[in-house]
C-alpha cells in the first residue's frame, strides 16, 4: 500500500483493508513457515487507521477514558487525531501509556481487573489486530473458538455434544481452567511465538511496548507489567490466543497421530485413549475416549504444556468428570441421561443452574423494592436482558427453563406493579397494565421467554469459513 496516499473515506478504507487482509491470509496459508516483514507500514497506513478508529469509536468502550481522561467518543476531529497519531507512529515517537485499572465484580464475590487503554493506544492496537489477525488465523487450530472471527461459543458446545454422543462416546472430561491467564502469560514466551511469524522488528517492538506499558491501579499507584496482557485491550484476545495456541498445537498433533476413525477404534481395542481438545479463550475441556486414568494423565500433560508459557491450571476449578455426572461449560450443562420413555441414554445440553441464577438475579435487581421507574422504562430495561439470555440458550433443551423464566418474570413484574400502585384494585390493575394477562404499556410489551423457539445448533467442524477466504466475507473490523 502507498503510505503517502490521502485519507480514504470509510467504505474505501474497509475495501482496501480487506484486500490486504486477504493477501496476508493467503500468503500465510500457502507457506506455514513464512515470516512476514515490512508490516509496520500497514499499521501506519491511512486505511488501516481509519478502520481501526471506526472500531474504537463505535464500540461500547468509547464511553470510557484511559489515564489521559480522553473518551474516544469525545474526540470531535477524527482526521486531525489520526493524522497526529500517524505522524507519531512513522517518526517513532509513539509510545503506549499505562492502562487505567477498573475492578468489576465476578461471580463468587471476586473482582476482575480490566485495563482501559487511552484512545490513541486503542486505535493502534486495533490497527495491529487488523494486520496480525489474518496471519495468525492461518495457523490457529479448528479446536479453538474464543475471540475468533466467524466462531462462537455454540460451536464449542456443538463439538462437545458431537464427541460425547453415540457412536463416538467420549465419556471422560478434563475440565480445564487456567489460573489468572491474562495476568500470568510470559512475555518472552509470547513474543517468541509472535516472532515465529512476524519478522518486522518494529511490529514486534510495538507489541512488546503494549505488554510492558504498565497499569495505573484504582488506588493511584502505577505498577509495571512483568507478565500478562491486561484484559480490556483490543489486542489482548488475539495475544492470548497466540499464547494459548501452544496448547491447541500440542493436542492437534496428538489428534492427528490417532489417525482415522478406524485407527482410533483400533486404539481403543488395545486399551489406548483417544482425546480431543475444545478451547474457548482460557476455558477448555479435553474429551477422552478411554478411562479415568487416561483423563488424569491428560490433565498433567496439559499443565506441562502450559508451563513454558508461564501458565498453570487452577487446582480448585480443574476437574475430571464423567459425562453421566455432567459438567458446566460456557453457561451450558452437558450431561448424558436416560431419555424420557426409553431405556436408552442421550446427551442433553441445557442452561446451567448458575446461568439461570444469573438472569434471575438481574430480573430481581430490576424489579426490586427500591426501583420506581415507569412500567415502560422497566420493560425497556428487562427486555434486552431476557432477549439476549434466551437467544444464547435457545440452542439446547431449554424449553422448560424458558417457561420457568417466563412465569418468574411475570410474577416479579406483577408484584412490582402491585407495590407501585397499592390503591387501585386488581381489576383496575389488570385492565390498565395487563391486557391479555401480559404486562404491556402502549406499544411496549414484556418480552416472553416462553415464546422463544429452541433449535439444534449444527456442528460445523472444520467447515467454519474464514472471513478472508469466503466470497461474501466482510472486513474483520
Short description:
It is built from 16 helices and 13 strands. With 477 residues, it is an alpha+beta fold. The protein is globular.
Write a structural description:
The protein is an alpha+beta fold and 477 residues long. The protein is built from 16 helices and 13 strands. The chain has helices at residues 10-30, 40-43, 46-58, 78-91, 119-137, 153-164, 181-184, 187-195, 201-211, 236-257, 261-269, 292-306, 353-366, 375-393, 399-420, 426-433, and strands at 99-105, 111-116, 172-177, 215-216, 222-223, 274-280, 283-289, 319-322, 327-329, 332-338, 345-351, 440-441, 444-445. The strands form 4 sheets. A 4-stranded mixed β-sheet has the order 2-1-4-5, with no helix packed on it. A 4-stranded antiparallel β-sheet has the order 6-7-3-8, sandwiched between helices. A hairpin with a 5-residue loop joins β1 (99-105) and β2 (111-116). The chain is globular. Mean pLDDT is 93; it is low at 471-477.
Structural descriptors:
16 helices, disordered C terminus, four-stranded antiparallel β-sheet, alpha+beta, 477 residues
Strand content: 5-15%
SS-based class: alpha+beta
Q: What's the rounded overall pLDDT mean?
A: 93
User: What overall form do the CA principal axes indicate?
Assistant: globular
* Number of beta-strand segments: 13
Rg, please?
25 Å
Amino acid at each position: 500500500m502507498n503510505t503517502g496516499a490521502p485519507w480514504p473515506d470509510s467504505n474505501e478504507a474497509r475495501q482496501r483493508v480487506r484486500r490486504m487482509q486477504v493477501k496476508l491470509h493467503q500468503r500465510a496459508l500457502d507457506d506455514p513457515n513464512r515470516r512476514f516483514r515490512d508490516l509496520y507500514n500497514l499499521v501506519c497506513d491511512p486505511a488501516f487507521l481509519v478502520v481501526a478508529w471506526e472500531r474504537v469509536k463505535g464500540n461500547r468502550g468509547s464511553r470510557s477514558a484511559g489515564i489521559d481522561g480522553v473518551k474516544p467518543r469525545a474526540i470531535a476531529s477524527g482526521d486531525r487525531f489520526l493524522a497526529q497519531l500517524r505522524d507519531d507512529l512513522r517518526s517513532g515517537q509513539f509510545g503506549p501509556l499505562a492502562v487505567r485499572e477498573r475492578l468489576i465484580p465476578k461471580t463468587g464475590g471476586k473482582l476482575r481487573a480490566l485495563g482501559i487503554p487511552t484512545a490513541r493506544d486503542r486505535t493502534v492496537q486495533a490497527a495491529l489486530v487488523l494486520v496480525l489477525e489474518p496471519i495468525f488465523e492461518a495457523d490457529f487450530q479448528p479446536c479453538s473458538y474464543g475471540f475468533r472471527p466467524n466462531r462462537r461459543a455454540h460451536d464449542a458446545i456443538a463439538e462437545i455434544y458431537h464427541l460425547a454422543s453415540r457412536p463416538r462416546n467420549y465419556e471422560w472430561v478434563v475440565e480445564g481452567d487456567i489460573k489468572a491467564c491474562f495476568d500470568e502469560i510470559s512475555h518472552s514466551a509470547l513474543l517468541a511465538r509472535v516472532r515465529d511469524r512476524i519478522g518486522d522488528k518494529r511490529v514486534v517492538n510495538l507489541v512488546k511496548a503494549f505488554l510492558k506499558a504498565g497499569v495505573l491501579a484504582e488506588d493511584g499507584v502505577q505498577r509495571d507489567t512483568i507478565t500478562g496482557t491486561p484484559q480490556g485491550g483490543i489486542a489482548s484476545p488475539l495475544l492470548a490466543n497466540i499464547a494459548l495456541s501452544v496448547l491447541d498445537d500440542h493436542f492437534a498433533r496428538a489428534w492427528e497421530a490417532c489417525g482415522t476413525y478406524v485407527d482410533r477404534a483400533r486404539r481403543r481395542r488395545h486399551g489406548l485413549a483417544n482425546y480431543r481438545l475444545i478451547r474457548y479463550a482460557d476455558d477448555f475441556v479435553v474429551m477422552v475416549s478411554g478411562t479415568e486414568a487416561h483423563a488424569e494423565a491428560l490433565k498433567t500433560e496439559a499443565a506441562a504444556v502450559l508451563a513454558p508459557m508461564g501458565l498453570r491450571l487452577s487446582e480448585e476449578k480443574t476437574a475430571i468428570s464423567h459425562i453421566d455426572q455432567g459438567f458446566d461449560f460456557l453457561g451450558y450443562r452437558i450431561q448424558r441421561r436416560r431419555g424420557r420413555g426409553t431405556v436408552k441414554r442421550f446427551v442433553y445440553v441445557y442452561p446451567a443452574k448458575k446461568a439461570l441464577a444469573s438472569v434471575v438475579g438481574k430480573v430481581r435487581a430490576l424489579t426490586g423494592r427500591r426501583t420506581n421507574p415507569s412500567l415502560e422504562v422497566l420493560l425497556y430495561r428487562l427486555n434486552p436482558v431476557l432477549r439476549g439470555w434466551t437467544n444464547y440458550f435457545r440452542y439446547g433443551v431449554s424449553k422448560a427453563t424458558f417457561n420457568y423464566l417466563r412465569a418468574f418474570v411475570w410474577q416479579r413484574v406483577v408484584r412490582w406493579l402491585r407495590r407501585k400502585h397499592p390503591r387501585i384494585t386488581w381489576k383496575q390493575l389488570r385492565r390498565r397494565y395487563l391486557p391479555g394477562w401480559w404486562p404491556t404499556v402502549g406499544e411496549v410489551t414484556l418480552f416472553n421467554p416462553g415464546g422463544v423457539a429452541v433449535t439444534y445448533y449444527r456442528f460445523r467442524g472444520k467447515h467454519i469459513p474464514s472471513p478472508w477466504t469466503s466470497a461474501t466475507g466482510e472486513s474483520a473490523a
